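Mods, move this if it's the wrong board.
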Amino acid sequence: MHKIGFVVFPGFQLMGFSAVTAFEVANLTLGEPAYEIELLSEPGGEIKSSAGFGVATKAFDDTAYDTVIFGAGTTIEPMTPGLIAFAQRSVQTSRRVAAPCTGAFVLAESGLLDGRRATTHWVFARQLQERFPAVKVEEDRIFIVDGSVWTSAGMTASIDLALAMIEKDHSQDVARSVARKLVVYHRRAGGQSQFSALLDLEPKSDRIQRSIEYAKAHLRSMLSVDELADAASLSARQFSRAFRAETGQSPAKAVENLRVEAARLMMEQGRHSLDVIAEETGFADRDRMRRAFLRTLGQPPQTIRRNAREGATIQ
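Not the wrong board. C-alpha cells:
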C-alpha cells in the first residue's frame, strides 16, 4: 500500500486531481488498493478550489506518507510558514515529494529545490529561475526526477508524473495499461515547447518578426546571423542585440528550437527517415540532430519517434 498525501490550499486548480485519477485507475488495473490517497491542507476542513466549490481535507499532522504531492494554482500565492514547514518535514519523512506545475514554487520556497534540477509550467519557468537562482530550472521538460523530488510542467503533466511513479512502483506494463484506460500517451513525445508559446518567440518589432518568419521558411539554409540580420534589415551586431532583448534567446538557440520542432512534427507524421528529416530541417546529419534533440527535449530522435508510434497505437 502506497499512502499518498495530496496537499491543497485555497484557490487550488482542480486539474491537478488528474494525478489522483491515474492512481485510482492503477488500483483498478492491479485489482487491489495499491494506492490510498488523503487530501491535506494546513487548516483542514473544506478548502475552496479556483472553480468555486470545495473539497474536504485533513489538517497537517505527523502522519508519514510514502508520497506527498503539492497541488498547484493558477497564480503564485504567498506560502504560509505552516505550508513551508510541512514541505520540509515531508522530504525527510516521505519516500518522495512531488510538485506539478506551480507547486514547484512551494518546494523552492522551502529550499527543497536548491541545487536540484526542476521544471514547472513554461509560463512560470523564468519567474521560478529569477526568484530562486539556486534551482536548475529546465523549462522545456514534461517532468523531472532529481533524487526524491519530482516536478512537472503544466497541470495535465501531473498525469505524466503519476504514470512514471506507477511504472517505478509496479512495472512498465501496469503504467502502460493505466495510460490506455485514461486514453493518454504512456510517454509523451517531446517537451513543453510543443504546447507553449516558446517557438512563437513573440518579438516586439516587425523586423525581428520578419527574421523569425524567414528562418521558419528557410530551415534548410545555414541561417547565419548575417543572413537573419539581412532579413531584418539590420546590421549583424544590431540584430543580435535586438533579437536577444525581444525574445530572451540568441538567434542560434531560436533557430535550433525551430529546427527541432519542425523535425519533431515530421517524426510524428512518420513518413520520412531520420536522415531525410535531418536534411530537410537543416541539421545536415543525424548526429547533429540527435545532439540538438538531447539539448532541447532531453530525448534522442529515436525515442521521440518510438513514443509517437506507441501513442498512435494507444489512441
